[in-house]
Each structure stands twice: as structure tokens, then as C-alpha cells.
Amino acid sequence: MLAVEDLKVRYGQINALNGASIDVGQGEVVAIVGPNGAGKSSLLGAIAGIVKPAGGRIDFDGENTIGQPLERTVRRGIALVPEGRHVFSGLTVLENLKLGATIRSSAAEIDADIQSYFEIFPILSERRHEAAGRLSGGEQQMLVIARALLSNPKLLMLDEPSLGLAPKITDRIYEIIEEIRGRGVTVLVVEQNAGRALKAADRTYVLNGGVVRLSGPSSELENHNDFEAAYFGLS
Ligand code: ATP
Fold it and tell me: Whole-angstrom Cα distance, residue 185 to residue 1?
């Protein structure tokens, strides 16, 4: 579904990605782990079209989407949930959700999808008329995930969904990710929390210094001798 090849991203003198390559197959949950500054957000940003790559290829559903703007990638079926839970705090939960569907035209279909996602996110249904700013951190994370799903993506990308959340809430977020996959959406998740990512993902890539140091089925990487060295950039 997604094939990223030799991707390069630069910010002035800084090389954030130095030729990173990853593949994501339809129906997979794939994780990208790595320390601060490894280039994880730059990779998701380039795929989503909010970061301009300096080179490489990004094939999505057989078309090279490199350099396409966000609006185009969203229409092609890519949704990004950026780090930091950016809700519109003065708007209600329901209004926030509807903003995720701005590329769609059928109000009836949007309403039906919102109802259907309330099955995965019952707390959002309960609080749908409340201001989003009143939600807890975990609830806001659920809201931004649900909002991204309202664009009807084939690929959902999540940047550090567990950051700053209590372990129990993080568990719930990862259960939700599994339920989303169950509805046919492919998931690419970035995490600094490597243990959590390895538990949740079918396959994991270890990124450091803007390149992939190690990759494979998560169950194999968990006990891989080189995992720590790759994660900390020692290899
Ligand atoms: P984090 O977990 O801290 O977000 P990351 O693995 O997502 O880290 P990136 O955010 O992609 O890494 O950053 C990769 C490198 O690029 C870092 O050295 C970072 O300081 C730099 N960088 C990222 N965004 C910018 C920017 N807009 N301008 C300049 N440098 C940037």
C-alpha cells in the first residue's frame, strides 16, 4: 500500500532524513520507533504532505505522491494525527469531529460515520456537546484519532499517541488502534515508547539519525541482540 524509498528531508543544514525506506502493507499495523530527533515526525510529515522532501519516492496505492500537498494526500486516503492532541478547544466534540470530514460532501454519510465511530469511542458520544477543551488528555487523543478517521482514510498515521498518558489510558488507545484495523484501516504509528510499539505492531522499524537501523516482525525485534544499539544509534 505504502512504499517509501530513500526519503530525504532537510531543514537548512539539518538532515532530518538521510534516505529512509519503509513499506506498509494493506491491513498492517506498523510502528516506527526511535529516540528524540530520529526523524520520525519528519517521515510522517513527508508522507502526509506537510513536510517537503529533498529526495526519494513515496508510492501510495501505486502512485508517487511525493511533494503532493496535504489536501491531495487526504483525498487519496492518508490521514495524519500529529503529536500534541490539537483539538479546537472552544468547539464541541461533535463540531471537532465534523471538521475532520471537510473533504466529504454527504452530510448523511458523515453523520452515519460519526455514529458508527461512537461505538469505538463511547466517551466521545457521552460528551459530544461539551467543549473539547474540557476533555482529559486521553479523551482528547481519542477525539483527534476519531476526527482523522472522519476523512475516511485507508492509512491512518499516528505520531506519539501515548505521549504523556497514563499506562491504562495508553492501553485503551492501543485497543482502539486494533479496533480501527479491524475496520479495514491500515495503521502506521510513531512511538518513542518502543516497548509499547513492539507489543502492538505487526512489524517495527527502528529509526535513528534519519535512517532505518533495524526492521522486522515486532516479535523478533523484541529480543533482538542489536535492538538497543540500533535504537540508541550505536550500530
Ligand atoms: P521527536 O520525537 O522529538 O519529535 P522525531 O524523531 O520525530 O523526534 P523529527 O521531529 O523528525 O524527529 O526531527 C528530526 C531532526 O530535524 C531533529 O534534529 C529536529 O531538531 C530537526 N527538525 C525537525 N523539524 C524541524 C524544523 N521545522 N526546522 C528545523 N529543524 C527541524
Answer: 11
pLDDT in tens, 81-137: 999 999 999 999 999 999 999 888 899 999 999 999 999 999 999 999 999 999 999
Atom 31 of ligand 1, residue of closest alpha carbon: 11
Q: Return the C-alpha cell found at 109.
A: 454519510
Q: Would you call 36 exposed, middle or buried from its count of C-beta atoms within 10 A (0-12, 13-18, 19+)?
A: exposed
Judged by DSSP in three states, 209 sits in coil
Q: Where are the beta strands (DSSP E) in 12-132?
A: 14-24, 29-33, 55-60, 63-64, 78-81
Q: What is the ipTM of this complex?
A: 0.94
Q: State the DSSP code for 103.
A: T
Is any ligand 1 atom within 6 A of the Cβ of residue 36? yes
Pocket lining: 7 vs ligand 1, CB cutoff 6 Å: no
Q: In angstroms, rounded to a whole number, what is the distance separating the alpha carbons of residues 170 and 143?
A: 14
Ligand 1 center to residue 143 CA distance, Å? 25
Of the candidates 126, 175, 181, which has an alpha carbon nearest to the alpha carbon of residue 155? 181
How far is residue 222 from each of residues 46, 195, 204, 206, 213, measured CA to CA in Å? 28, 8, 10, 11, 15
